[in-house]
UniProtKB/TrEMBL annotation:
Protein name: Lipoprotein
Species: Brachyspira pilosicoli B2904
Length: 356
């Protein structure tokens, strides 16, 4: 018995003297967590602030809407262009309603109204309108009066619907010949005038429109040639390739080419010259409103496609003009007979090049 008691005391002593152990602690402790670089952590948006609490007391007011009633309960809305015609003010209204003052309801009745306002502004008279079943976008008087192109005069309104322009060519006063070039064109010419003839329609009552063959005519005169004081059309014009004048976005664009006389006034190319070109990499522009007869008003521009003698196609997308294809020609000197010949040509693919 004593031995058992002694054994128990020894065991108890050992337990008391041993290091305390946390039985809930894991036997394997993982490494510390590696957090991402703070600089790479996205900046989240700031939360929306809480809206202020409205005041406890609010003041309520009735809103009174007074429609503009002409007569018989007619109301107009969607006002558009206002203009003066026959010394009287007019205005366009998209919508027309019948107003019921009892129910305060507007009922659509017509559309596309032309209204006349008297001098004191107190009386509105409807001149014309169309049925709700009609299409305003296909109604001639409505689209014409709302167009930016319409011209409103004292007693007539007109609008251009199309037109043409004519380029007038003239020839030098004397005949010119090259001294040492074989096989060349000698029909030298230049542009002297540009004639505009805009066709359109006009009206005297704002409703009925008739064709007007001569809505607008205008002549633009270009400067004359001067051999001793040449301008960009050269001393004697051009003959080698086509001279072309285009009208685009309020400007004239002129494409022309030099002649031998623009480089050598005697028409003789020295044998010592390098390979010779009569193509041009320049074009000239002027705003239509400026004096076209003054060479100083014309601007010289370098074409993005470089030198061209012939251009296959001109194209445009409403913003720029582009060219497609074309070719250029080089003259070389032949010492055996003392003449210059077109010895090589370079044709360009029909790709659309940078626009101007």
């Amino acid at each position: 018995m004593k031995n058992k008691i002694l054994f128990l005391l020894i065991i108890l002593n050992l337990l008391i003297s041993c290091k305390k152990v946390n039985l809930l602690t894991p036997s394997i402790i993982p490494p510390p967590t590696e957090f991402k670089n703070n600089e790479k952590i996205p900046q989240y948006p700031t939360p929306t602030p809480v809206l202020p609490i409205p005041p406890e007391k609010t003041e309520e007011k009735n809103i009174i809407v007074t429609p503009e009633i002409v007569k018989d309960g007619i109301v107009f809305g969607g006002y558009g262009r206002r203009f003066k015609f026959n010394n009287e003010w007019h205005i366009l209204a998209t919508n027309e309603y019948k107003y019921d003052p009892n129910t305060k309801i507007l009922t659509p009745t017509y559309k596309g109204a032309i209204l006349k306002i008297d001098n004191n502004g107190k009386t509105i008279t409807k001149i014309h309108s169309i049925s709700l079943n009609d299409d305003l976008e296909k109604t001639e008087y409505w689209t014409n009066l709302n167009s930016r192109k319409v011209l409103i005069e004292q007693d007539k309104v007109k609008i251009p619907t199309g037109g043409t322009y004519e380029v007038v060519y003239k020839y030098p006063d004397k005949k010119y010949e090259y001294k040492n070039i074989k096989f060349y064109r000698d029909n030298f010419r230049y542009i002297s005038d540009v004639l505009f003839n805009l066709k359109g329609k006009n009206t005297s009552d704002l409703i009925n429109w008739i064709d007007s063959p001569d809505t607008c005519k205008r002549e633009y005169i270009l400067h004359k040639l001067n051999f001793d004081n040449p301008n960009f059309q050269g001393r004697i014009g051009s003959a080698h390739w086509e001279v072309k004048l285009l009208y685009f976005k309020g400007k004239f664009l002129l494409f022309t080419h030099p002649t031998v006389y623009d480089y050598y006034t005697n028409g003789f190319i020295p044998p010592s010259s390098e390979d010779f070109y009569l193509d041009s990499k320049y074009y000239y522009t002027i705003e239509v409103g400026k004096d076209t007869s003054d060479p100083k008003n014309w601007k010289t521009n370098e074409a993005p496609w470089g030198r061209r003698g012939v251009i296959d196609y001109y194209r445009y997308d409403g913003t720029k003009i582009y060219i497609s294809g074309g070719s250029t020609y080089k003259y070389q000197y032949n010492a055996s007979d003392g003449y210059w010949y077109i010895m090589s040509s370079e044709a360009y693919a029909a790709d659309v090049l940078d626009g101007i």
